[in-house]
Specification:
- The complex is a heterodimer of chains A (543) and B (307).
- Chain A is of the alpha/beta class and 543 residues long.
- Chain A folds into two domains: 5-267, P-loop containing nucleotide triphosphate hydrolases (Rossmann fold, 3-Layer(aba) Sandwich), CATH 3.40.50; 284-512, P-loop containing nucleotide triphosphate hydrolases (Rossmann fold, 3-Layer(aba) Sandwich), CATH 3.40.50.300.
- Chain A has a six-stranded mixed sheet, sandwiched between helices.
- In chain A, a hairpin with a 2-residue loop joins strand 1 (13-24) and strand 2 (27-39).
- In chain A, helix 15 packs across helix 16 (395-408).
- Chain B is mainly alpha-helical.
- Chain B has a domain at 107-303: MetI-like fold, CATH 1.10.3720.10.
- Helix content of chain B is 75%, strand content 0%.
- Chain B has twelve helices and no strands.
- In chain B, helix 5 packs antiparallel against helix 6 (136-151), helix 5 (98-134) packs antiparallel against helix 10 and helix 10 (211-247) packs parallel to helix 11 (259-265).
- Chain B is globular, with a radius of gyration of 22 Å.
- The chains are: A alpha/beta (543), B mainly alpha (307).
- Chain A binds chain B through residues 68-69, 330-332, 351, 356, 359, 364, 366, 368, 371-377, 385-386, 389, 436, 440, and chain B through 198-200, 202-209, 217-218, 221-222, 224, 306.
Chain lengths: 543, 307
Amino acid sequence: MSDTSNDTRDPLLTMRNLRIEGRADDTWGEIVHGIDLDLYRGEVLGLIGESGAGKSTVGLAAMGFTRDGCRISGGEIRFDGIDLTEASEATKRHLRGARIAYVAQSAAASFNPAHRLMDQYCETPVQHGVMGRTEAENDAVDLYRRMQLPDPEQIGFRYPHQVSGGQLQRAMTAMAMACRPDLIIFDEPTTALDVTTQIEVLAAIRNIVEQFDTAAIYITHDLAVVAQMADRIKVLLRGDEVEEADTRSMLAQPREDYTKSLWAVRSYARAEQPPVAEGTVPVVSIKSITAGYGTVDVLKDVSFDIHQRRTVAVVGESGSGKSTAARVITGLLPPREGEIRFDGEVLPPDYRRRSRDQLRQAQMIYQMADTALNPKLRIRELIGRPAQMYLGLQGRKLTDRIRDLLSLIELEPDEYIDRLPSELSGGQKQRIGIARALAAEPKFIICDEVTSALDQLVAEGILKLLDKLQGEFDLAYMFITHDLATVKAIADDVVVMKEGRVVEQGLKADMFRPPHDPYTELLLSSVPEMDPDWLTNVLSDRT
Amino acid sequence: MGPLIVLLWAVAVIAACLVAGWLFRTVAIVATPHTIKRELRTAPLTASFGMLVIVIYIFVAIFAPLIAPFPEREIVGPEYMPWDHIHLLGTDNLGRDMLSRLIFGARNTVGIAFVTTALAFLIGAILGLLAATVGGWLDQILSRVVDVLMAIPALIFSLLLLTIFGTSIPTLILVIAVIDSTRVFRLARSVALNIVVMDYIEAAKLRGEGLWRLITREILPNALAPLVAEFGLRFCFVFLAISALSFLGLGLQPPMADWGSMVKENATLISFGDITPLLPAGAIALLTVSVNFVVDWQLHRASGLKE
């Protein structure tokens, strides 16, 4: 346990033996099994764990709140002397917003799109009678300035869709600060943001929490982020506490095996491949592609090659055109200029005019397995359909092929073949997405942010699987990502994109060695590192 | 009767309905295979009662000639006989047995309403899914045609068409089906528009799937829940539309028994304080309410709402 000077005071928030149950199919099952937690004023506690660990559930319980279909079944939650498990709804309502605030993962989904930022900011303080409307507005401008939002006087009069994702997340944090709460719960506030935006939001959050001496619970699955933000870290696994320690000692000497495995993930890297021999025909080659929607060019003069058995990582922040490049290659978006070659042959720009074999050769794995698999079809049909369509397999042969594919992606065929996607975990769904691509026996696979919706341990499993399959089937990968840790782990070549142009491209080893293009430099330096002083150092370097 | 007794009666009737629903559900759970059993367990008592009523109506409609004590169109006694032990619900304005006509009416009205609704769904759902999947010009043309059709009040439009084409049963079915398919089209299209943007549809297109397979295997299964719920509601509307048209004299033609026209034919009895003409109306109301109970339950399940 941490030995900070805070221990002499009473904790602001305590949880003792907290148990929460969730309902599934009319039976209650325990999802949080007796968590103890202490949080002192002005302290930031990091809650980490993979999805399903119960970190959001515990975070919400700090407000005495449970999601629909969940209930607190035992234990005690005490906030500043008030027992939240016993407190009336009116008491809790009075606490929420005024003394305990919550910042959600997706600010875009949490703001009401029909009201201006300012109106939404003022709602809480006016409702709780903390201050009047004019006072609240002046206060908002002050907080917007402290959150380093551009044009703090005017930004409040915009609607949520008129500001960027990172700005919205900062506006939301400002809103949570409106009543100067004693406790703020941050639930993955930067997960949906690009690295370059994330760093600004992290700095702003840390700054404001320090300025007002607010206590905070910071929920995330990103270890490097929590290292920057938290004074203490608590690791959760399937509703149980694994260990808790102050940040520095946790990072230096994790005690439990599970924690060590979390720490080890970041060190995965694939063996270096020899450079491509001169004169080899690339599997996919795009040349001087210009493409876009309407009159706007999203891609401007983009060219790169992808060779057999190699992984090309396409990196850039959102809006840089990396997904558009994938749409051009698959033929969903015919380019205005330029050509796409496959094995040296020019491909028709529109997928509808490509032959079935051309379609078969290039497959795609999507970011969100949830939306990429038809929820009403069973695994048998999801994987079997491409094999049936392209290779003409039927009956027994088809079943055998499906079983082989399931074994390849390391899922037990008997158990999974007749399941629906909803009966799988996130990582398993992504594996089915991989199997569907493999079923077509392609030469080339586009992986569009395939690991960004997954926990680190699960993501690592997916990366290793992709790596293994590449060796087995001589696949060429185009790996779209904004996460440079993934690039380090899996890429052979890197293409850095910004605003529709290729800023820099080359071998991975060259890419991570200076000198860099200024934009690559910014990207590289924005990737959080496990060092707790990283954020402080980067910020002081940049000013 | 004092108001208290009326209240007690109402409570007793509702309780009886719920008990009947509970009994029906218990029996149904025992009698059905495993997969349906699980779904039935989630049915509230109202939905169970609704299903019971629907089952009874279907049974009566199918076995009408066996159940009815008298033939549908035969004059079996003097006009407007009161209820007695031979003619349990008396006779109508021509002296035909009321109970028998009520039973045959179930067959005619419910049967035709079902066929009409099914046809409306066939037309509306296929065109709606097609419009959403293909998009572009086809979507524009279909949607604008539907807009024009919907701009004309349904009842007046069907009266107009029936006057032009005559009042045979096939015309009646076609006219109402086409008018109602516009509503189905709108729903199917808007549901499908949310589905066609999903990645799995993109994946299917890139795989080179044909239009028919795209619609039937990828889109339709995901659009089914709202469409089924709409089927129940639409069935009620069609049913009411046929009854209304019959009441106005343009629906099912005499001497066919039909609940709508039965109300009209015997309406004079109401002035004498006899409730017999209200029975067909009651039969319509009971089925409509029952179907809606079941639809509510299905909608609730499909939308994933919890209590």
